[in-house]
Automatic annotation (TrEMBL), chain A:
Subcellular location field: Golgi apparatus membrane
EC assignment: 2.4.2.39
Name of this protein: xyloglucan 6-xylosyltransferase
Biased composition (Low complexity): 11-22
Entry keywords, A to Z: Glycoprotein, Glycosyltransferase, Golgi apparatus, Membrane, Signal-anchor, Transferase, Transmembrane, Transmembrane helix
The UniProt record lists the keyword Membrane: yes
Catalysed conversion reaction: Transfers an alpha-D-xylosyl residue from UDP-D-xylose to a glucose residue in xyloglucan, forming an alpha-(1->6)-D-xylosyl-D-glucose linkage
Membrane topology field: Single-pass type II membrane protein
TrEMBL record, chain B:
GO molecular function, a single term: UDP-xylosyltransferase activity
Organism: Deinandra increscens subsp. villosa
Protein name: xyloglucan 6-xylosyltransferase
Classification via InterPro entries: Glyco_trans_34, Nucleotide-diphossugar_trans
Presence of the UniProt keyword Transferase in the record: yes
């Protein structure tokens, strides 16, 4: 009873004793809550700290840009930059272009190639006498200078430059074998005589600077030598000053605009040639002069389409209208000083089977000229496939004749690869005597 | 929980300990990372390498390659679908690689056969001497002081991968044609791979050997890379200096024989005499060339033996350095390492000085004042990737070309409007007495081109 009361009292006193426990409990919960908050705060602090440091370290070592998902951006920038550079190189823009318009010759102005020279033969022979160590005849052969060229800027497409390269290699090979020097021109010597007319001031300049040269041989960049053995029979032309491929009947009877071909011709270094060049040039200056001249030529020559005056039509017109020039012009067609490619390129295999180099004519053409193909431009007059495969075939056809000395040939006329046709030997000089075109007596002339 | 184990105070201590431990560990890790990022940790790598590795593995899965240092590609502009390629007249649409047809297969080589550049010839000097006696029309000396020289260069028979590469090859060969015409040197432009095993920079070896044996009249063969250009048109090589030597290369004796430095000499432009010694040298030079395992292994040997050589397959230049350095007694007395003029001139140190040269000097020196050859090593204009930026390479090649071309044009009274320009302008007026006008450099009719006048 008493215990109960005590208990009750105890329990009665409980409420009073719970009051301090309640306080300490809230204090404890408060303390626990405080700790909780502290912990959370600490965790947040550490997280933020770690995050900051990670970013700093990564930025320091790698950099923001690489973290961007599109690393193609850098690549793209490089490609765009290089394309810009290529476009700049390929364009005709030049850092030295004047802003003002180029003055073109008026119709009434007379254009001259240069200061008139009237006694070139005399001056030249005087020079030759005084400079005996630069003779115009070396080892019994008259000195020839082969002149060719191409524009100074890259072709409209890469294939064009590649075939220009193959073409000059072809000419280098022929000229090395035959002791002919080459001038490869890439400069426009006269702004007005541009395009196909550019050869006129060039030829004149070279004649006057090289009196030791007897013959200047102009050859287009799209003409390839396909007979490495054949030599131009200069003795045939001792009374002539211009040797050009063509057909007299086409020239005089039909007045055809393709009666002659100025893609490959020889000019003697003499007064007559300078005079002819002076007479030839007036139709050339670009602008209204060339346009008007073009109309005259289209009207006068058979089959000529309407376009500005070109050097070939102008020469034909000149020789027809002033036929006194013809006495010193040799119109050659007994061999292909210029050989129109379309009729020749398909027959190379047949030629290799039946004939041999040195003939120079339709059996084994001296020169295969790819008129109309224009690989340096964007568009040609013929399908590209046909032109390029034919040029490749002609190049390899000629290259086989050069490689023969070394014991190789191409694996087919369309193949850049070569194969052996002769085993290596410890006595190579026997083959040198047989196969070197310069030594063997294979060089024939008509 | 810890309260129950340790008691509340202890638990708090423990927590604090744990907390401090965490912070310490964190700081330690940070320190290591930062130090590694800044100083590198040797074989443990750097963060950049890590990143690159991660990126590369990532890209592998995405099917992309790591970007090269320089890319030269042409973005194909969308061309309208016109007629089929067989009848198109438009050159831009044509794929040149469809043109080539090999009518025969490659000759299968017996892999067990050791490589040989050709049958061993031991009496070449006698054979050649005899031939020269029998062929007096083809003397090996065009003048008493001037040997007959054949300049050999070349490029691939297929178009360049780079759309303007062929244009620069064309300019380069024009440049060589001009120099050689003035100096009476013949040119052989090679476009054929004579030996499929010796491809790449080694292709010149079988070619040189073949040319030496096929042209006994040639006294010196001058190999020149396609990316080297003549920039001094007036400089004639000092042939007298080499009368007792068989191989002339640009280089320095100390760098080759003492240091064994892989760029101690340069095989981009060198002279080789046509004689037995040269054939023997080629026989010793060739074995490191055959592509495949031999070239790879040889590359490792060369990287190990030569100073500063990076790791890549064997190249002809390093092989030459190694041969000269390790077999000095056999070869050195006939080798001349020329450095008095730029038989090869590294373009990087020359191209920016052209205007200064024009102002202060004149052609004919051949050395640092007016370099004979500017060699664009590393530019690789025919390929897609080079070691230098595109713009620098191509623009400088244009400048070097014009620098050389000006010396040719001045013969005819012209010059380029500037070194960057393709256009030309007159430097002298047309004259009615063209023969009175002398070209300043005397290149039109130089003494070394004079023909021996036969005494009648």
């Amino acid at each position: 009873m008493g215990q109960e009361r005590a208990q009750k009292r105890g329990s009665a006193t409980l409420p009073t004793s719970t009051a301090p426990t309640a306080v300490s409990r809230t204090a404890r919960t408060l303390r626990a809550g405080n700790r909780q908050i502290h912990k959370t705060l600490n965790n947040i602090k550490i997280t933020i700290l770690c995050g900051l440091v990670t970013i700093l370290v990564l930025r320091g070592t790698i950099g923001f840009s690489s973290l961007s998902p599109d690393t193609d951006l850098e690549n793209q920038a490089i490609i765009e930059e290089t394309n810009r550079i290529l476009a700049e190189i390929r364009s005709d823009k030049d850092p030295e272009d004047d802003n003002q318009n180029q003055p073109t010759t008026n119709l009434n102005d007379t254009y001259t190639l240069g200061v008139k020279i009237s006694n070139w033969d005399h001056k030249r022979s005087l020079w030759l006498t005084r400079n005996q160590d630069f003779p115009n005849i070396v080892n019994g052969k008259a000195r020839i200078l082969l002149v060719t060229g191409s524009p100074p800027n890259p072709c409209d497409n890469a294939i064009g430059d590649h075939y220009l390269l193959k073409s000059i290699k072809n000419k280098i090979d022929y000229c090395r074998i035959h002791g002919i020097e080459i001038v490869y021109n890439m400069a426009h010597l006269d702004k007005e005589l541009s395009g196909y007319w550019a050869k006129l001031p060039l030829i004149r300049r070279l004649m006057l600077s090289h009196p030791e040269v007897e013959w200047i041989w102009w050859m287009d960049s799209d003409a390839l030598f396909t007979d490495m053995v054949f030599k131009v029979p200069l003795s045939k032309y001792k009374d002539h000053n211009l040797v050009i491929h063509g057909y007299p009947d086409l020239l005089f009877d039909q007045k055809s605009w393709i009666a002659l071909n100025t893609g490959s011709f020889l000019f003697r270094n003499c007064q007559w040639s300078l005079d002819l060049l002076d007479d030839w040039a007036p139709m050339g200056p670009k602008g209204p002069v060339r346009e008007e001249a073009g109309k005259i030529l289209t009207a006068s020559l058979k089959g000529r389409p309407a376009f500005e005056a070109d050097d070939q039509s102008a020469l034909i017109y000149l020789l027809i209208t002033k036929s006194e020039w013809m006495s010193k012009v040799f119109v050659e067609n007994s061999y292909f000083l210029h050989g129109y490619w379309a009729g020749l390129v398909d027959r190379y295999e047949e030629m290799m089977e039946k004939y041999h180099p040195g003939l120079g004519d339709e059996r084994w053409p001296f020169v295969t000229h790819f008129v109309g193909c224009k690989p340096c431009g964007s568009y040609g007059d013929y399908p590209v496939q046909r032109c390029l495969s034919s040029m490749e075939r002609a190049f390899n056809f000629a290259d086989n004749q050069v490689l023969k000395l070394y014991g190789f040939r191409h694996r087919g006329l369309l193949s850049p690869k070569i194969k052996r046709i002769r085993n290596e030997t410890v006595t190579p000089l026997q083959y040198v005597d047989r196969f070197d075109i310069r030594h063997s007596g294979q060089a024939t002339s008509n | 929980m810890l309260d129950r184990v340790f008691g509340p105070r202890r638990a708090r201590q423990f927590h604090r300990l744990l907390h401090n431990g965490k912070i310490t560990l964190l700081c330690l890790v940070l320190t290591i990372v930062v130090l590694r990022g800044n100083l590198g940790a040797g074989k443990f790598g750097t963060p950049e390498q890590d990143f690159k590795e991660i990126r590369e593995t990532f890209y592998q899965y995405r099917g992309k390659r790591a970007e090269p240092r320089r890319v030269l590609e042409e973005i194909q502009t969308t061309t309208e679908q016109t007629t089929s390629s067989s009848s198109t007249n438009n050159y831009a649409e044509f794929d040149i690689n469809k043109l080539f047809v090999d009518e025969e297969d490659d000759v299968k080589k017996n892999p067990n056969e050791p490589y040989s550049i050709g049958p061993k010839i031991s009496d070449w000097d006698e054979q050649r001497g005899e031939w020269l006696k029998q062929n007096p029309n083809f003397p090996n000396f065009v003048n008493p002081n001037k040997p007959r020289v054949l300049l050999v260069t070349g490029s691939s028979p297929k178009p360049c991968e780079n759309p303007v590469g062929d244009h620069y090859l064309l300019k380069s060969i024009k440049n060589k044609i001009d120099y050689c015409r003035i100096h009476g040197i013949e040119i052989f432009y090679n476009m054929a791979l004579l030996d499929a095993e010796m491809a790449g920079f080694w292709a010149k070896l079988p070619l040189i050997r073949k040319l030496l044996l096929s042209h006994p009249e040639v006294e010196f063969l001058w190999w020149m890379d396609s990316d080297a250009m003549f920039t001094d048109m007036a400089f004639e090589l000092p042939w007298e200096r080499y009368k007792d030597r068989n191989l002339v290369m640009h280089g320095w004796n100390e760098m080759v024989y003492d240091e064994k430095n892989w760029i101690g000499l340069n095989t981009g432009s060198f002279l080789l005499r046509n004689c037995q010694w040269s054939l023997d040298l080629i026989d010793v030079w060739a074995p490191m060339g055959p592509k495949g395992k031999i070239r790879e292994e040889a590359g490792k040997v060369l990287t190990r033996e030569l100073k500063d050589r990076p790791v890549f397959e064997a190249d002809d230049q390093s092989a030459m350095v190694w041969i000269l350095a390790s077999q000095k007694e056999r070869w050195a007395d006939k080798v001349y390492l020329e450095n008095h003029y730029y038989l090869h001139g590294y373009w990087g140190i020359l191209v920016d000085r052209y205007e200064e040269m024009i102002a202060s000097y004149h052609p004919g020196f051949g050395d640092h004042r007016w370099p004979l050859v500017t060699h664009f090593v590393g530019c690789k204009p025919c390929g897609k990737f080079g070691d230098y930026p595109v713009e620098r390479c191509l623009k400088q090649m244009d400048r070097a070309f014009n620098f050389g071309d000006n010396q040719i044009l001045q013969m005819y009274g012209f010059t380029h409007k500037s070194l960057a320009s393709r256009r030309v302008k007159r430097t002298r007026n047309d004259s009615s007495n063209p023969l009175e006008v002398k070209d300043e450099l005397g290149l039109l009719h130089p003494a070394y081109k004079a023909v021996k006048v036969p005494s009648s």
